[in-house]
Amino acid sequence: MSKRSFPVKLFFFSMKGKLLISSPGLLTDMIFYKSIILIVDQTDEDITGFILNRPSNLFMNKEIDSSKKIKIELNYGGPVSSYHYFLLKSEKKYPEILNIYDNIYWGNNIEFLFNLIEKNKLDINDFILFQGYSGWGIDQLDDEIENNFWIINNTKENDVFKLKEKNSWNHQIKNLGDKYIPWSNSPDDITLN
C-alpha cells in the first residue's frame, strides 16, 4: 500500500493580529513593495488586512457647518474594494467594530467616526482611515509565504499606529537580522539604486 502525501498548510494557526512584512522578493511588485500589512480578519476561506505604511495623498472631507470642515488623510489599504473605507482604532466606541487583538479594532462605520470627531470625542490622530483593503484566499497567501514574499511578525511587539511612518518598513527589515540589513536602506524607488 502506498502512502499519500498531502500539501502542508501554514495556517494551522491564526494570522489575525499578525504583521506581514514584504520581503525583498517583492521588489518589483508596485502594490506591495516595502509594505507592512496588519491582518485584521481570517476565515476558513480568506484573509483580510490593511497596508499600514502607504499614505494615498488623498483626503476625506466633511463639512460640519459653514465655518468648520473635517479633513482626514486616507491611507491605501490595498487593491480590493477601493470604493469602500475602513478604519483602524485603539478603543471600542461603538458595537459595529471588530476586535483584532488587545485594544485594537477595525470597522467601516465612517459616519459614526465623523460624528465622534464632530463632538470632540475622538482626535483624528487616534485612528487610521483606509481606502480599500488587501485580501487573499487562504491557499494564495500560503503560497506567497512559502515563496518568501512575506515575513510574518507579531504585532504585539509593535505600535501599529507608528508603523504608518515613512521609514517603518526599513526599520522593521533592519530588526529582522543580518540577512536583511543590506535591504534596510534601500530607496523607495529601486530604479534610483
Outline of this structure?
By secondary structure, the protein is mainly β.
Can you describe what's shown?
It is a single chain. The protein is mainly beta. The chain is built from 3 helices and 10 strands. Strands 1, 2, 3, 4, 5, 6, 7, 8, 9 and 10 form a 10-stranded mixed beta sheet that branches. The longest helix is centred in the middle third of the chain and has 9 residues, at 110-118. The termini are far apart.
Mean pLDDT across all amino acids: 80
Largest sheet: 10 strands, mixed
Beta fraction: 35-45%
Total strand segments:
10
Unreliable stretches (pLDDT < 50, length at least 5) are 1-8
Derived from helix and strand composition plus strand pairing, the structural class reads mainly beta
Please specify the SSE layout and strand pairing:
Elements: E1 18-22, E2 36-42, E3 46-51, E4 55-65, E5 68-76, E6 80-89, E7 98-101, E8 104-107, H1 110-118, E9 127-137, H2 138-146, E10 150-154, H3 168-174
Parallel strand pairs: 5-9
Antiparallel strand pairs: 1-2, 1-10, 2-3, 3-9, 4-5, 6-8, 6-9, 7-8
Quickly list its features.
13% helix; mainly beta; 193 residues; ten-stranded mixed sheet; disordered N terminus
